[in-house]
Amino acid sequence: MRILVVEDNHELAAWLGKALKQANYAVDIAHDGEDAGHLLRVAEYAVVILDLSLPKIDGMTLLKRLRQDGNKVPVIILTANASLDGRVAGLDGGADDYLAKPFEIAELEARIRALVRRGHDRATPQIAIGDLLFDGGTRQFTLAGETLILTPREHAVLEHLVLKVGTTVAKATLSESVFGFDDAADASAIEIYVHRVRKKLEGSSVQIATLRGLGYMLRHAG
């Protein structure tokens, strides 16, 4: 799952990027509204974390342009302005959530998970496919009742496929959700991680099917 952090404070942006990567997200960082606008035009994100006080193009202007262009990506505003008027202005401008600085990373992660569930129309955080269970509240996988141990990239692959269960995910789309712009990955890298996840699902009632020329689909093996 890929997240865009838009924050002009380089130290805070680096801290956020590191924390979110440790939580198995792919992360891109922009330090001004102009760069963020470019990234949002060329890549698809699960969530945008947006500071309002940005150089070149301020966060509120960027948000309004995003919505005017029809981009519905969930946006969490981060700002030092915790006033009621500030929160109302952000939400009326098209934001989905609002978090005042300073904040705890655990709360930000919980808000990200809630927005992702909402975006996939999941009333419950749990998704079951055969004997594979994904808990959207903790973002943990269990297989036949046992915790499924995955590397961050493997986790990203399986999470994206679970959230799109029963539908075909193009290889390019899956790759974009797993790798950020700063990640070194060639065209075949996603195939390696899909293969590794398949190995860990062997013997279970769920499989990753390859639809030649189309992409991948997670489905019940039976």
UniProtKB/TrEMBL annotation:
This is Response regulator. It holds the Pfam family Trans_reg_C. Keywords: DNA-binding, Phosphoprotein, Transcription, Transcription regulation, Two-component regulatory system. CDD domains: REC_OmpR_PmrA-like, trans_reg_C. GO terms for cellular component: cytosol; protein-DNA complex. Gene3D superfamilies: 3.40.50.2300, 6.10.250.690, Winged helix-like DNA-binding domain superfamily/Winged helix DNA-binding domain. GO terms for biological process: regulation of DNA-templated transcription. The modification 4-aspartylphosphate is found at D51. The lineage of its organism: Bacteria, Pseudomonadati, Pseudomonadota, Alphaproteobacteria, Hyphomicrobiales. Residues 2-116 form the Response regulatory domain. Residues 124-220 form the OmpR/PhoB-type domain. InterPro entries: CheY-like_superfamily, OmpR/PhoB-type_DNA-bd, Sig_transdc_resp-reg_receiver, WalR-like, WH-like_DNA-bd_sf. SUPFAM superfamilies: CheY-like (SSF52172). Residues 124-220 bind DNA.
